[in-house]
TrEMBL record:
Keywords: Pyridoxal phosphate. The keyword Ligase does not apply. Transmembrane segments: none annotated. SUPFAM superfamilies: Tryptophan synthase beta subunit-like PLP-dependent enzymes (SSF53686). Its cofactor is pyridoxal 5'-phosphate. GO terms for biological process: alpha-amino acid metabolic process. Gene3D superfamilies: 3.40.50.1100. This is Cysteine synthase. InterPro entries: Cys_Synth/Cystath_Beta-Synth, TrpB-like_PALP, TrpB-like_PALP_sf. The keyword Flavoprotein does not apply.
Amino acid sequence: MPKIPFGPTYKEMLDPGRIAPEIRRKALQAKEDELDPINLFNITWKDEVGEVHKVVLPKELTGTEANIVVLLGKYFPSGSHKVGPAYATLIEGCVDGDILPGEHTILGPSTGNFGIGVSYICNLMGYEAVVIMPDNMSKERYERIQKYGAKLDLTPGTESDVILTLQRTYELKKDPKNRPLAQFELLPNYRFHRYVTGNSAIEAVKGVGNGRIACFTSAPGSAGTIAAGDQIKLAFPEAKVVALEPYECSTLATGGRGQHRIEGIGDKMCTLIHNVNNTDFVALIPDDDAVRGLKVIQEGTKVLEEMGVSPAQALGLKDLFGVSGICNILGAIRMAHYLKLGPDDNVVTIATDGFDRYPSVMEDLERRYLETEDFVVRRWARDIFLKPNTENIFDFRGPEAKEQLYRQKEKDWLPFGYSQEYLDSMKEPEFWEKEFAKIEDYDEKIEKLR
C-alpha cells in the first residue's frame, strides 16, 4: 500500500503535546503560511501551550448565574473546527485504501464550513475537490472554498435545502473516481468530535465553577459536534445534552421544515451520525435572534459596556463568533435558566467559526431593518441575551420522544439505501461504542503508514 499523506492521529489532535517536538515546532511556525501541509498538525482545540481555546462569557451579558464556556473554533486552520472532521474522514479513507492520491477526486457536501474544510484539507493533502452546496449561502463561504482550490457545484436553495446537495452527491459518486467525504453519514465525523471535541470540553471547565459540565448545547448541522456530548456524559453522567434548532426549521422537535438564516445548522433532517440516545432536550432559537445577537457582540461594544461588561471583555468578544455560534450561546443561556443552574455550574457550547465569513450577513441585516443605531442594539441586547426565555424547550428523555427521533432518521435515510436493520442497530449503545473504539485502530494505521 502506498504511503499516506503525513498528518496527525486522533490522539495528537486532542493533545498536540504527543506530536514529535520538531514537527510541533514546524507546525506552529507554519501558522503564518496556512497552505503549508505541516498545518495538518495544527488541527486541535489547543493553543501553543496546550490550553483549550475558549472564552467564559461575562455574566453581565448572559444574565445567568451559571458559567457559559464557549470553545472557539476560529483558531483551527482554515478558521473553523469543521476542518477536523474533514481531515478525519479523508485520512480514514486513506488508511483503508479507499481514497488514493492522484486517483480520486473528493466530494464535499456542505452548507459552508465543512466545504471550506474539505477544500483546505484537499489542498494540503494533494487531492482535487468538488464542494456541493446550496446556491444561496454567504458569499464569503464561496470565496474561501475557491481560494483553497476546490470547484463549486451549487444546488438550488439555502441551508434548509441541503437534501438536494445529498442527492447531487449521490449522483456524482456514481463515477468511480469520485469519493465523498459525507459528513452527514460517515462516522469519522462522530469519532473526531466525540474524542477530540468532547475531551477538550472536559478539559476546558477545569478551574471554572465546580469543574464539571452540567449542560452541553450544540445546534446540529451534520450532528458531528453534538457527539462531544457522548464523551461529556461519560465524565459527567448528570450532564444534559441539548440539540438546538432554528425556530423556523424545527425538524427534530416538531417535524418542521422551514427556511431560516442560521448557516450550518437546521438541515431538515436527523442525520445518520446523530446518536439520539444521548440527546436529552431540543430547544428552538429564532434565527433572527442569532443574527441580531451577532450584531450586538460585533458592533455593540459601547452597549456591552453600558450593560456592565468591561471594555477589555467587550472588545475581546469581537470576531470570535459566527451566527451559529451565537445560536449555541443563546441555547446555553436558555438552558441555564431552564435547568435553574447556579454560579458553580458550567454550560459548555461551541463557536464553530469566527466573524470573518459573515460581513455579508450583517449587510443583509442592515438592509432588512430600518434602524440599527445604538438605541436599537441596546434593545436587542436586552431582549435577546438578558430576558430569561425558557419557551420552546422540548424534553426528549422519554421513550416516546426517542422513538420520534428514530422515525425521523428512518424517514431521512431509508431513501438513500440504508437498511432498516442498520438503522435499528443505531438504537443500541453498543453500536456507538464499537464505532468509537475504532480510533485505536486508525491511530495505529496512521502512525504506521504516514
